[in-house]
Amino acid sequence: METLSQYFSKALLIALVMLIVLNINANSQVKIQYPKTKKMEHTDNYFGVEIEDPYRWLEETDSPETARWIESQNEVTFGYLSRIPYRDKIKARLTELWDYPRYTQPFIAGEYFFFDKNDGLQNQSVLYIQKGLKGTPEIFIDPNKLSEDGTVSLVGSNVSNDGKYLAYLISKSGSDWHDIYVMNIETRELLPDHISRVKFSNAGWYKDGFFYGSYDKPENSNELTIKNEYHKVYYHRLGTAQQEDLLVYSDDSNPARSHWMDCSEDENYLFLYVNEAGKKGNRLLFKTSLTSRDGFRAVTDDSMEYTYYVMHSSGNSVYLFTDKDAPNGKLVKVDLNNVTAEWKTVIPESEYPLDNVQITGGRIFAQYMVDVTEKVCVFDLDGNYLYDVSLPGLGNVTGFHGKSGDEITFYTFTSLTSPPEIYSYNISANTSELFHASEVKFNTDDYESKQVFYSSKDGTRIPMFLVYKKGLQLNGNNPTYLYSYGGFGISMKPVFSASRVILLENGGVFAMPCIRGGNEYGRKWHEAGMLTNKQNVFDDFIAAAEYLVSEKYTSPGRLAIAGGSNGGLLVGAVMNQRPDLFRVVFPAVGVMDMLRYQKFTIGAAWIKEYGSSDDENMFKYLLGYSPIHNIRQGVEYPATLVTTADHDDRVVPSHSFKYISTLQEKYKGSNPVLIRVETKAGHGSGKPTSKYIEEVADQWSFMFYNMGITPIY
Q1: pLDDT, greater one: 22 or 161
Q2: Which positions are catalytic?
């Protein structure tokens, strides 16, 4: 019989063991009471296949009932997050990391330079102006003064060709609907011109006004979800009311087409670009003046099989970037007086993707991706190679914008371990000078990055970037965050993010595979991950996770996956296919209902990427991976935190609403499956710094908590 002392010693030991177990399985001991989500009887018939859609009512995102559902879900989610003991400490460290001045690359307008600057914790970056390279910066537009909560953002600006005016675009709560205002640059006077209901458009200056795109105002419908059709291009002349604006182009026969316009630098030509849902490329047309009685003349045919973008004009000729007969891209010269004549190749297709072309100061700056790192080659206007731009290292480069007469231009360099550095570049001398360097409050020398290659399911060689603290032990125990996108020809480039420092400081690994669906190896790489090749994207991502486990960077119990928008679709599909491989999943603003995505806002434009459920063959394929439709009962799913926003009119939040409702209904395990709905925010652009820090802090807290890790803070 044990003594009282032995009894208490044993009890203490049991208590300590229980504490350890509770720490390792931080949430598995607590059963979360999710809000009860109403189900309705609704069935759609797709080619004889009955598909239930019990949460269809959540597509009415502006209804009082949906608002109550959001409130109840947020109450559970934030209640859960509030119990994480180190959540505030992570937020404090993130706030410290974000508190450094951040600049954008300047653009030139006559003798003035414009650039955005955020002092550190300002909700929105401020547009500054300075006279000459050595001038004193002055505030030109401060969007922080336009709202009390920082939810009004400056999303674009364009200077008139004569350098007198600046048109700037404002977004409210992150919406894709914008307003345009105009400022006199010299006097800083705000003009009475105000254009509302602008969407998927810039302000394309021409003469004494500008072009913009818009849709008709819907009647008795939610403009944050209604399908966008019949895009129109208008011309606004300064000093006139919007209702007097000239309708320049519309197409009543093709509701799924969108358009935008700009003009040549000398304003002798107007260019019209046409895109259509389901088409891979675009059409290009032109005319010589706004008042010309002649209609638009076609530079390309109406097939929209390839992309065409005007990069520069010289006399009657234009330089076009195109991927026609060149999957990796090339630069051609076209005589607008004889567009049917053979186009002259200025820079031919290379073995490496031509990622970007800028023609500035009489030079062609051609940016190539070599295994997803940038190389910048300089050519004269005849296409003769001159030299390479000497870059600070292997990483990502953006810039070299400007006009024909510019003597200097700017570019930005960054890498996974190097915060952005902005350089001024002397075009004639081929020399760079540091214009601004970021000063983040952590020692970048303590970390290293490398690129590895692994094999996907079909043997395709996939590159992946890794970042971690020097001296990392490959013991399979490191918390790892696997992130990618895999679609729309968007490349995963090695750029710096202060938000990842939290992971790295806690012995973690950031992994970013460059999976198919992007443009890392040109158009063929993109096409290998679209339409009926979409499973390649998921296989590439799964293979990345398996590589990290096999090489002992991590283990399934310490592996989180994340992605946003198309990347949200990615992690949602992958979680269904391999729930055993991950501990934590973060689907952000994801396309989760692949049978109905094309019915909302701009979703129809993605048909060229995904295909449509209106096609029988594509319906079967989409149904096979659609995240909502492949959640199964009896499966042990990872801890999941879905994030979306109430004003997301790019990927409407009903995708996430219906997804989490289905997951909460069918999953009966102990891992948390939650949704975090941000208010007065959209797809991501223009989100206030304060909201961004809070969201990132919640994600790292959720990840560490569900991995049983206590951060160092």
Answers
A1: 161
A2: 565, 683
